[in-house]
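input
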Amino acid sequence: MRFQPIYDIAQLCSAKGIKDVVVCPGSRSAPLVLGFTRHPDIQCRVISDERSAGFIAIGMAQASQETIALISTSGTAAFNFAPAIAEAFYQNTPLVVFTADRPKEYIDQKDGQTIHQTNIFGHHVKKSFELPQEYEHEDSKWHINRLVNEAINIACEFPAGPVHINAPFREPLYSEGGNFQYTKNIRVIKKSRKNFTSGIPTEDLAKLAKHKKILVVCGQQQRDNKLLNALDHFSKVYSLPVVGDITSNIHTLSNAILHGDSFLAECGESVKESLKPDLLITLGNSVLSKNLKQFLRKYRAIEHWHLQESGYVADTFQQLSTHISVHPVVFFEAFNVKIESTDFDHQKRENYLRLWEAEENRTKKSMERFFTQENTSHFHLTKRILLNLPGPCSLHLANSMSVRYANFVGLSADHKDVEVFCNRGTSGIDGCISTCMGHGFKKNHLHILLTGDMALFYDRNAFWHSYAYPNLRIVLLNDHGGGIF
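output
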């Protein structure tokens, strides 16, 4: 059967752990769609709008912590995946993106839905692959299997992200008879996971010991209870502040500083000088707070360590000195053991922590006075919404003002069953509802989206499907287009 190697792609994806596929309409992708929709261990969801489909796949991947596949037909349909793929790239979300294509000889010949699709997503995928046009030769079958194996391995390895597989198909697109069987014992190429040991070099411990003003900054990250426990213990034993945004999901930590964006915008130079760290330790993805970024770029630490297993490390604060290739949990757990067995003088570190806590508490009191005034501003409405969040739930925040309102208000340790999500990989207006919808498909608890009217209308095609979403609630801050999304 001519398309047997293509049908077997679904068998291979299933063998490598892919359980969900988001399919967009079109005829050119028929061989791929047949292979996936007929597979007994794969669930396919049909989403008509490719832009929405891409973000739904992101939400599903984030909620399930698994790789999701996407399929589109040829031409401009493939281009419509681009915003979601860029978001997935910067949020390290694993997607395997299949785009059907026309025969290469028809490119630039004024044939319908025939465009340049090779490397169509440029630098916003971890790698692009091109399947052969002909499948009859045994080497072509081997080649297809090898490429798809490699693509899935790359999508899953740290840091995770999207990969693109372009698949040109000739007509006829449907095999005679329509029936086929998947190849048994399909070849699966495994990739071993690198295990990071808990051994922290003695020189790193010595460097940590010499610094009296240590600041931990967490970027956007999903909630990880093991990380939170290790970081909470580390910050308490070592008496240091942990700064983050609402998207950092650190609101349950004892030493969390959650309103830095507010007080760094208004405090004087002398206060900022006192808050300047000697050692900056960072983890996670992008930082929401512009004021925090500006503060750290101006008041630079002596050393800046970033904790990340592998991959490209951004120099966000323009002072990166050391990339420590380790999972943050391993780092903090290892230092916790060494700290407890070492005699450190904590007085100066406690003083530094108190400086940050003083600004945090001052801001909280100021906010309490602000919120006691009767008002229907978006800040007050957001405050009421966050106070009444049920648990467990996921709070999804649209760009741009909704996430900033929520970050201003903040969550507290009482919200231990609330996890926060937002499309801050590229911080675009698109896909806010769709990402939330994708989460709802994979997690049964309540999903609450706080959005402005522009972001809502921009992504309304998220509802253009036949799947139920009983666990989705949308709170609309409607200012009739007058705000920023």
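quick obs: The longest helix spans residues 347-372.
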